[in-house]
């Protein structure tokens, strides 16, 4: 397995495969299928200071090779995430990347300060890119100055490295990356979902109750690759890449674009075993391509 | 245990316009124990459609390692599924969710089973299991029109069966509740599956006895991880996940 081990700020990963935030809950459901210790890390569902119910249903709609979702950051709140979910996860040998969200900077600061104290939280993922909530989320992720400010505020209180999750819903992704780098980010995760819509054939109205939703799945892979390709050449921050990964070949492609690890999201819904399957398939694929270690693939597209 | 298996198509036929009966075979059936659970079906081999389709289990046969589902071919995914032939396989994840409590009614007592449209199928396994333990069953099944009716004979073989059609072309004209208002009040519990307006009508008029409702919602993962199919279960942020806490709930447990 040493072909797959990766060192990133705060994270010693057995392998670079991480279930993406929002697509894996807090791991309990998928522990029915395999031992979570097999994973490189787990990005847990976004945590806010207070419990949130989220948006009305329908919350998902399907699109060609993808899906739209507008869950609305449903989570049990900071207190329960720490006392129940993280405690349960601590029985597994897997580092946790805690995705944190809020509607104002104070929310991010509160969650960051407390959740980063949990012994199995090795890094934070600052969610400034959720497109499905009225306040917060994406509003922090589309203005470089605001993004820099919230990154700095979280960095000041976090006891673990901070990765900032970038939104693709911007004109200039490099500018956003540079802004959060200036704010002190230790790494980037990208990309979050693209804002999209589906309409009902008979009623003419949006299928999703929230009207718009975030597009994920293989449909967005080319966008993710392009953005990682651009950003990885313009910043020195390590990138955890995500956006439509469904197999080992996709993982290699993300590394070529400039990623140092990857997250797998929507594919978990299609095949609950997708993460361990990819982990098992990667060594042979690396052999076939002539690499001794997966890190040799990072940035091959532009190096 | 939830299993993912490539299952063999044993038979596949159209029961009524756009209503298909598909029987699959595989080891996954060993995990099927309660009526009212569902499976999550991949309808294409590729990326389109991407997500699985939740389909209720109509009946299962442990001895033959087979189970039957009845579904409506309405969208892209189920239309693709409807083209599967007996030489093919289907990728199935299941069984999922919590089904109907068979032990809510004792041997010698009577249970009322109420289904609407494509909500009728899961009641068939339930009825078989209730009858097997000595429960008397009464079925009230609602459909749009005569041509949409399926499994009338199968249900009738298990117990008293009443059909309602919206246009009156078969059975009682109207909804299931139009049949129910004339039924003797001899049953101990009601089990139901159907469209939300039907479930709401049952909850409004028949909550004095144990009433079990099977809910439906657009799903993502089907296993409780994605929070797509959530419903309120009371004040504030309390909730239930239809896929993993349900799909069957006791009336009052969730807000319809």
UniProtKB/TrEMBL annotation, chain A:
Pathway: Pyrimidine metabolism; UMP biosynthesis via de novo pathway; orotate from (S)-dihydroorotate (NAD(+) route): step 1/1. Substrate binds at residues 45, 69-73, 127, 192-193. It is an enzyme of class 1 (oxidoreductase). It is found in: Cytoplasm. Gene3D superfamilies: Aldolase class I. Binds 1 FMN per subunit. PROSITE patterns: DHODEHASE_1, DHODEHASE_2. Its EC number is 1.3.-.-. Its main location: cytoplasm. It comes from the Bacteria. One of its GO terms (cellular component) is cytoplasm. Residues 4-286 form the Dihydroorotate dehydrogenase catalytic domain. One of its GO terms (molecular function) is dihydroorotate dehydrogenase (NAD+) activity. Pfam families: DHO_dh. It catalyses: (S)-dihydroorotate + A = orotate + AH2; (S)-dihydroorotate + NAD(+) = orotate + NADH + H(+). InterPro entries: Aldolase_TIM, DHO_dehydrogenase, DHOD_1B, Dihydroorotate_DH_1, Dihydroorotate_DH_1_2, Dihydroorotate_DH_cat, Dihydroorotate_DH_CS, Dihydroorotate_DH_I. Keywords: Cytoplasm, Flavoprotein, FMN, NAD, Oxidoreductase, Pyrimidine biosynthesis. FMN binds at residues 21, 45-46, 99, 127, 165, 191, 217, 243-244, 265-266. CDD domains: DHOD_1B_like. Belongs to the dihydroorotate dehydrogenase family. Type 1 subfamily. Catalyzes the conversion of dihydroorotate to orotate with NAD(+) as electron acceptor. NCBIfam families: PRK07259.1, pyrD_sub1_fam. Heterotetramer of 2 PyrK and 2 PyrD type B subunits. This is Dihydroorotate dehydrogenase. It comes from Peribacillus asahii.
TrEMBL record, chain B:
GO terms for molecular function: 2 iron, 2 sulfur cluster binding; electron transfer activity; flavin adenine dinucleotide binding; metal ion binding; oxidoreductase activity. Binds 1 FAD per subunit. [2Fe-2S] cluster binds at residues 221, 226, 229, 243. One of its GO terms (biological process) is 'de novo' UMP biosynthetic process. The keyword Electron transport applies. It comes from the Bacteria. Signal peptide: none annotated. Pathway: Pyrimidine metabolism; UMP biosynthesis via de novo pathway; orotate from (S)-dihydroorotate (NAD(+) route): step 1/1. Its cofactor is FAD; [2Fe-2S] cluster. Residues 2-102 form the FAD-binding FR-type domain. Keywords: 2Fe-2S, Electron transport, FAD, Flavoprotein, Iron, Iron-sulfur, Metal-binding, Pyrimidine biosynthesis, Transport. The keyword Electron transport applies. FAD binds at residues 53-56, 70-72, 77-78. Pfam families: DHODB_Fe-S_bind, NAD_binding_1. Responsible for channeling the electrons from the oxidation of dihydroorotate from the FMN redox center in the PyrD type B subunit to the ultimate electron acceptor NAD(+). Heterotetramer of 2 PyrK and 2 PyrD type B subunits. Belongs to the PyrK family. This is Dihydroorotate dehydrogenase B (NAD(+)), electron transfer subunit. It comes from Peribacillus asahii. The lineage of its organism: Bacteria, Bacillati, Bacillota, Bacilli, Bacillales.
């Amino acid at each position: 397995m040493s072909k797959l081990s990766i060192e990133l700020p705060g994270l010693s990963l057995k392998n670079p495969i991480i279930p993406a935030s929002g697509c894996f809950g807090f791991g309990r459901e998928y522990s029915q299928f395999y031992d979570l210790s097999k994973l490189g890390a787990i990005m847990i569902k976004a945590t806010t200071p207070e419990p949130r119910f989220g948006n009305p249903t329908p919350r998902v709609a399907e699109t060609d090779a993808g899906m739209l979702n507008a869950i609305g950051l449903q989570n049990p709140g900071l207190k329960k995430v720490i006392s129940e979910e993280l405690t349960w996860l601590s029985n597994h040998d897997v580092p946790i990347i805690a995705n944190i969200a809020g509607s104002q900077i104070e929310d991010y600061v509160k969650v960051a300060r407390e959740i980063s104290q949990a012994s199995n939280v090795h890094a934070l993922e600052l969610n400034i890119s959720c497109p499905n909530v009225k306040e917060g989320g994406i509003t922090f992720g589309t203005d470089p100055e605001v993004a820099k400010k919230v990154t700095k505020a979280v960095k000041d209180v976090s006891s673990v490295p901070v990765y900032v999750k970038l939104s693709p819903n911007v004109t200039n992704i490099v500018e956003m990356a540079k802004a959060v780098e200036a704010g002190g980010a230790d790494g980037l995760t990208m990309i979050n979902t693209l804002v999209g819509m589906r309409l009902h054939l008979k009623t003419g109205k949006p299928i999703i109750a929230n009207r718009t939703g975030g597009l994920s799945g293989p449909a967005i892979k080319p966008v993710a690759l392009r953005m990682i390709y651009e950003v990885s050449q313009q910043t020195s921050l390590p990138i955890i890449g995500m956006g439509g990964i469904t197999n080992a070949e996709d993982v290699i492609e993300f590394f070529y674009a400039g990623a140092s690890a990857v997250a797998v999201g929507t594919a978990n819904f299609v095949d609950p075993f997708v993460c361990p399957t990819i982990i098992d398939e990667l060594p042979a694929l690396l052999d076939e391509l002539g690499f001794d270690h997966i890190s040799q693939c990072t940035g091959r597209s532009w190096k | 245990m939830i299993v993912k298996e490539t299952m063999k198509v044993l038979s596949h036929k159209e029961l009524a316009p756009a209503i298909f009966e598909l029987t699959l075979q595989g080891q996954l059936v060993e995990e099927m124990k309660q009526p009212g659970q569902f499976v999550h079906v991949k309808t294409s081999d590729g990326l389109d459609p991407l997500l699985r389709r939740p389909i209720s289990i109509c009946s299962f046969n442990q001895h033959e390692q087979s189970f039957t589902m009845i579904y409506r071919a309405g969208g892209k995914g189920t239309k693709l599924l409807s083209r599967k032939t007996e030489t093919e396989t289907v990728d199935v994840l299941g069984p999922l969710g919590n089904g109907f409590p068979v032990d809510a009614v004792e041997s010698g007592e009577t249970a009322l089973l109420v289904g609407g449209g494509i909500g009728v199928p899961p009641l068939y396994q339930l009825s078989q299991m209730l009858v097997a333990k000595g429960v008397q069953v009464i079925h009230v099944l609602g459909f749009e029109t005569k041509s949409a009716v399926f499994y009338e004979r199968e249900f009738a073989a298990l117990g008293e069966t009443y059909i309602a059609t919206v246009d009156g072309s078969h059975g009682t004209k109207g909804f299931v509740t139009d049949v129910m208002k004339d039924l003797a009040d001899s049953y101990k519990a009601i089990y139901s599956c159907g469209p939300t307006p039907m479930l709401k009508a049952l909850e409004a008029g028949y909550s004095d006895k144990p009433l079990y409702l099977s809910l439906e919602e657009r799903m993502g993962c089907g296993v409780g991880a994605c929070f797509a199919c959530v419903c309120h279960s009371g004040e504030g942020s309390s909730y239930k996940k239809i896929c993993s806490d349900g799909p069957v709930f006791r009336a009052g447990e969730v807000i319809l």
